[in-house]
UniProtKB/TrEMBL annotation, chain A:
Keywords: ATP-binding, Nucleotide-binding, Transport. This is ABC transporter ATP-binding protein. GO terms for molecular function: ATP binding; ATP hydrolysis activity. SMART domains: AAA. Residues 4-241 form the ABC transporter domain. InterPro entries: AAA+_ATPase (IPR003593), ABC_SmlMolc_Importer (IPR050093), ABC_transporter-like_ATP-bd (IPR003439), ABC_transporter-like_CS (IPR017871), P-loop_NTPase (IPR027417).
Automatic annotation (TrEMBL), chain B:
It holds the Pfam family BPD_transp_1. It comes from the Bacteria. It is found in: Cell membrane. This is ABC transporter permease. The keyword Phosphoprotein does not apply. One of its GO terms (biological process) is transmembrane transport. Its main location: membrane. Residues 79-255 form the ABC transmembrane type-1 domain.
């Protein structure tokens, strides 16, 4: 049985169609990258996976069960910005999830339990390369380090699904390369299922096991919102060549221009 | 060069800042001297000599009738009322503001009431407070609470809602329940903002304090000012006003420093 199943899924806001007729089946441990023009429903789909939005029609199933209607500890998220807590140090940020899980009322760990949890935290910080900054405040970190922290904060909960919403969109290209390596390493170590939304088609081609292109098949020049987007390409990574890249690039850019017009 | 690009240096900025104070003092002392030259018993613009004599009498000599040092007695009475009023108002603001900001059901239920209450002119209900709570301490403290709490409640709720939505989602994905969202995310981030709100509310709080003391009291800075007004005792009123101003500045600066010390992440641009 597939891990995540999407059957004939539609999302509409009033008469504005965002997603139409989405069908997808994802196995556990896959790393899917979602690309497409802005306004093509990538982020909306991610929000549905997160439990922040619900579909208008169709099914969205996790191991055969409907998705929970609100975010929970099984689905981690990293946003482009504001994912970490400014009032906690790096270490406290990563510790947070463990504390919340073990202490429903106090929300804080003390003594021995805290020591055990902190060992886990320090291992996690080590693997994302933040050990030297463990006691810094988030505002003292660079953008790339903040995103490392956000990833560590989510992964320490061992979520079944990790959702990334343009996590590297605000970073310099050089830093982005480092972050790709880190993400692939962590994915191999943890075996968690990842969905990553990106604007960058190249990023989508390079990372992960599967590329999902969200695009509009139909377009009404007089009413750009009349038709929704769907998955136009569903490619295993590795089967991609230059020609295909150009085709997708052209199609996505065209949609972007239509959206803007 | 344009005016907007002229920046003063450190020394000239200090001098420019001092200049208005010096000018006011100069104008006052000239006017005072002139009136005192006409009539040495003039009460309207007392000179430095009369004012220091008055302060000495009020602050450093026992009152002949009661045996108290009046200025200190007035100060402690007023500060106790102010502290209690602002303290209660801030605690209420924190509770109601956070619940309003975090829980949509409470917001739907309470936000309209809080908005309406914040529009009631507090001095208009002062008579009601006197009738309900009597002329004692309670009615004065209540006036400060009613005058400052609703606005602080709105401010706190607004600050909570300004926290990035991403954080609210993130903490839910870390498994937080509603209570933990309040205690681990909203409360700690709103505390420094509450201190800022208290600083802004201190002005109105002083206003309500002095108004209440002026009408019904037996001690307090506002009571004293309004009492000696009957004798045109400007030599007492002016030092009292200066003293109140100094107290207000000191309290404000203490809060500012406490905010810096307690919440280093907040003041270093971590929000």
């Amino acid at each position: 049985m597939s891990f995540i199943t999407v059957n004939n899924l539609w999302k509409e806001y009033g008469d504005q169609v965002i997603l139409e007729n989405l069908n997808l089946s994802v196995k556990q441990g896959e790393f899917c990258t979602l690309v497409g023009a802005s306004g093509c429903g990538k982020s909306t789909f991610l929000k549905m996976l997160l439990g922040q939005e619900t579909q208008t029609r169709g099914e969205l199933l996790l191991e055969g069960e409907a998705f929970p209607g609100e975010p929970d500890r099984n689905r981690g998220i990293v946003f482009q910005r504001y994912s970490v807590f400014p009032h906690l140090t790096v270490r406290q940020n990563v510790l947070m999830g463990l504390e919340l899980e073990q202490k429903p009322w106090l929300g804080k760990l003390f003594g021995g339990a805290r020591k055990v949890a902190l060992e886990k935290v320090d291992d996690m910080l080590e693997s994302v390369g933040l050990s030297p900054s463990a006691n810094k405040w988030p505002h003292e970190l660079s953008g790339g380090m903040q995103q490392r922290l956000a990833i560590a904060q989510s992964l320490i909960m061992r979520p079944r699904v990790l959702l990334l919403d343009e996590p590297f969109g605000a970073l310099d290209p050089g830093i982005r390369g480092d972050m790709h390596d880190l993400l692939l390493k962590l994915w191999q170590e943890t075996g968690t299922t990842i969905f990553m939304v990106t604007h960058d088609l190249k990023e989508g081609f390079y990372l992960g096991t599967r590329l999902l292109v969200f695009d509009k098949v139909r377009n009404d020049p007089h009413d750009p919102q009349a038709f929704g987007a769907t998955i136009t390409y569903d490619l295993p990574i590795g089967q991609t060549d230059r020609k295909l890249f150009e085709d997708i690039h052209q199609s996505v850019s065209e949609t972007a221009r239509n959206q803007a017009a | 060069m344009r005016m907007i690009n002229h920046h003063p240096g450190r020394v000239s900025a200090t001098l420019l800042g001092l200049l208005p104070f010096l000018l006011i003092m100069l104008i006052y002392s000239l006017a005072s001297q002139e009136r005192l030259a006409d009539n040495p018993n003039d009460k309207l613009l007392p000179g430095l000599e009369q004012m220091t004599a008055a302060v000495d009498r009020m602050a450093f000599q026992e009152d002949r009738r009661s045996g108290d040092y009046l200025m200190w007695q007035d100060t402690t009475a007023s500060l106790a009322r102010l502290g209690m009023g602002v303290g209660i108002a801030a605690s209420l603001a924190l509770m109601v503001g956070i619940l309003n900001g975090v829980l949509p059901l409470v917001r739907a239920n309470l936000a309209p009431l809080v908005s309406a209450l914040s529009m009631v002119p507090p001095l208009a209900i002062l008579p009601i407070l006197f009738i309900v709570f009597g002329l004692g301490e309670l009615s004065k403290v209540m006036l400060i609470v009613i005058g400052t709490a609703p606005i602080m409640m709105r401010d706190v709720a607004q600050r909570v809602r300004e926290l990035p939505g991403e954080q609210l989602i993130k903490i839910q994905t870390l498994g937080a329940n509603s209570w933990q969202v309040i205690t681990r995310m909203a409360l700690p981030q709103v505390l420094p903002r509450l201190i800022d709100a208290v600083r802004l509310s201190l002005g109105p709080a002083w206003l309500f304090l002095i108004a209440a003391e002026a009408i019904a009291s037996t001690e307090g800075l506002g009571y004293r000012i309004f009492l000696v007004r009957r004798y045109l005792a400007m030599d007492v009123i002016l030092p009292y006003v200066i003293w109140i101003t100094i107290l207000a500045i000191v309290i404000d600066q203490c809060l500012r420093l406490a905010n810096r010390r307690l919440f280093p992440w907040y003041n270093a641009g971590g929000h």
